[in-house]
Amino acid sequence: MRILRFFITRIFLKRWILVLGMIILLFLANYLSFTTARSIISTFQGYQEIETLNQEGTFVANLDPNSEPDFAKIKIDDTQKVYKYLNNNYTYALQANGFVTSLDNKHKMDVILNYINEESYKINQFRLSQGNHLNFNYKLNKEKIPVLVGAGLAKTYPVGSNIEITDPATQQLVNLKVQGVLKKNSYRSNFYAPNSKTYFNFSIFLPVNKEFIQSAGLDLHVNGLMDIVLLDSTKEKAMNVKEHIQENLGLEFNFFNQQENFKYFEDYYVNSLKIICTITFILLIIIVCLAIWNTLVSIRLMIKDFTINLLVGLSYSKLRAIFYSYFGILFSIILAIVFVITAIDRYGFWLRKDSTFATYGIFGVISMDWMALLIVLFIDFIIGFTIVELTIRKIKRIPISVGVLQ
């Protein structure tokens, strides 16, 4: 322990400004590596989830970003014409998220109502921790509407409980019955950016059938069209829908297959990854060079003390163990800081009552965060191994003899 303290205080930290610079660079490299790894993991999860849409005959709608929509001119009669046209001629998946309602719950979070039709529900393949899946064959205003609730609402509204609310989509008082509970951290990835996710821990999923759509208001009609998915269709039929929407609502929509959406995403995402990876790689090279140079310079400045330690029994194998211990402590501290920052970021969603991104885990840290931390740990191991082995090789070349003590 004394010899480790000697090396830390007299060798490694002798030129503390350089050490501080190396620690800052190491933190930046670790955080960039963590962010990149987590983004790649999230993207991979998104690709797996959305793969069900990546097939022939499936087209995803989105509002043309270059258009100038005038939503004030849209009337409910016009949107009903569009949905009647869709119901008569197409099979489509509809999911409209983000309708906020005030509903008492243990965590005092805003509750998000998500409307989903049967085709979209099949595509999403939600997993449940309790209860049964949704039933879409209910009679509006005559039966209780079966719903799914997120994990964050399960204690307040367990399976079988009733919820009475004013539905934001219909502006009517509705009676909901909890049919099932989603697994913790259930999410949906964005069609156009698979690395982006919306979490459903504080959501209620309400099944939408044709009767419900007819009774719904303008907001649900318009929001439902934004990400509507045509199934078992053709490009020509998708263009017919585009023309019908533009003619009735004045909205210009694009209809792309999911492979085209992936390609659009990859065009800017891969370039961003290349830039981040290049910066991280340069930082890691600088860290390795700086760590080796700082250690060797400090040893040369303390050559007498270093020689004495070698003469009284310090072997190169023990020296290697000391180096690994020091860099292991250093990397552990940096990794702990990255974890703390991640935990603060995740827990911040709970503190801000942001129900869309609140997740369950240690301080909200979820599986992809832990996987990214493990990847950073592996990178640190490689960097530490490189620094120690190259440093030991350089030290062995330093001429050590009793003469340096005179």
TrEMBL record:
The organism's superkingdom is given as Bacteria
- The residue ranges crossing the membrane are 12-32, 281-303, 323-344, 370-392
Identify the keywords attached in UniProt to this record, alphabetized.
Membrane, Transmembrane, Transmembrane helix
Q: Protein name, please? A: Peptide ABC transporter permease
Q: What is the lineage of its organism?
A: Bacteria, Bacillati, Bacillota, Bacilli, Bacillales
